[in-house]
Amino acid sequence: QVQLVESGGGLVQAGGSLRLACAASGRTFSRQAMGWFRQAPGKEREIVAASSWSGGSTYYANSVKGRFTISRDNAKNTVYLQMNSLKPEDTAVYYCAAQRDVYVYGSNLRRGYDYWGQGTQVTVSS
Prior knowledge:
This protein has no helices and eleven strands.
């Protein structure tokens, strides 16, 4: 059974930093894209960042470019999201996701995710 488990969420003041981690189990994702999504209250879920299998191709939402960095450690089957200069509008539940298809990159990083974690709450106070 595939599981994606997020950790690292919490409450932080505006301007602060958090590092989210997503550990996968049940199968390896060394050849698959992984990404981070978020959903704020009353809003639709949106993609935040995504990484190709090697990390050589990444995608960032415009709202987080220059502040968030996605990385992965395939040996640990884990993907990370370093979030700096956090803003109150970053407050949301953050979800980790993984694709089933292999060797996806470029614009296809933005969609087609098959596995999802349960989410971790990030709250940024002003």
